[in-house]
Amino acid sequence: MKKVLTIAGSDCSGGAGIQADLKTITAHRLYGMSVITALTAQNTTGVQAVQAIDADFVGAQLDAVFSDIIPDAVKIGMVANKEIIQMIARKMQQYKVRNIVLDPVMAATAGSKLLQKEATVILQNELMPLASIITPNIGEAAVLAGFTPTTTDEMEKAAKIIYEKVFAKRQDDCAVLVKGGHLTDSADDVLCDKNLTYIYNSRKIDNKNTHGTGCTLSSAIACNLAEGFNLQQSVKNAKKYVTMAMQTNLDLGSGAGPLNHMAAGGWLTSDIWQ
Ligand SMILES: Nc1ncnc2c1ncn2[C@@H]1O[C@H](COP(=O)(O)OP(=O)(O)OP(=O)(O)O)[C@@H](O)[C@H]1O
Ligand SMILES: Cc1ncc(CO)c(N)n1
């Protein structure tokens, strides 16, 4: 069985972060492991409090995992502050980790900050270059590219700018995926690698329950990379997973509710694993 590690923050309400990642990995019928970077007190209405884990303790968790069970892919989500980013970067290099999916989480859907502002540059310079794919949403792409994309053409332009900043010197397969969940007319995602652009067209599902879509997409990409799919196909499969998980309209809590991983897992078993 392939193994997938998530390095992320905990969402006690189960919709985003570590909890969304482990549900996604389990629905893909893979073995999930987790290194927790921060505890959050949050629910469908927003984030009430954040407690970052000591960077040394994040390192201790990474040593415990990598000295025993080597993951086939790693998803990195909320990293909270620069000390944690530097610890993760050091350990990823020490253990020569491949298949890293980096979701550059900066804020929760409702707007609360999940990354120290001054840590953005460290994230870009020290951790992003170690990833196979980075998956900014529109707001994160705006911070990284220097302008806010509003169309698929502009998303492509932003992805190319980010690619040049982060991966300019890389020879192996790597890519930037700008996610369109916050566009108004569609939910198209745009992937750029060294040579090509792929547009994943999707109509916007009329559903306020989008808590954890980004976490779910990035961990689903990691599952597909662990299974041996290439970047382009991994994103295609992962986007289908998120779409299925949104479509059933699970409606928990009074705000932006979580996804239904049972519905999405059903698609996986029927279409890919048989
Ligand atoms: N209303 C929607 N209809 C269809 N797909 C959507 C919708 N909202 C988000 N998605 C898809 O979900 C995935 C995550 O995109 P999004 O831009 O919401 O990420 P995010 O902002 O990082 O997520 P999060 O809310 O977890 O922080 C993308 O593949 C996006 O296209
Ligand atoms: C822990 C955590 N990670 C990521 C997000 C972004 O959705 C969130 N709300 N909470």
TrEMBL record:
UniProt KW keywords: ATP-binding, Kinase, Nucleotide-binding, Thiamine biosynthesis, Transferase
Coiled coil: none
EC number(s) per entry: 2.7.1.49, 2.7.4.7
Pyridoxamine kinase/Phosphomethylpyrimidine kinase domain: residues covered: 11-260
A Gene Ontology molecular function term of the record: phosphomethylpyrimidine kinase activity
GO CC entries: cytosol
Root EC class: transferase
Highest taxon listed in the record's lineage: Bacteria
Keyword Lipid metabolism: no
InterPro entries: HMP/HMP-P_kinase_dom, PM/HMP-P_kinase-1, Ribokinase-like
Membership in a protein family: Belongs to the ThiD family.
Any one of the GO BP annotations: thiamine biosynthetic process
Name recorded for this polypeptide: Hydroxymethylpyrimidine/phosphomethylpyrimidine kinase
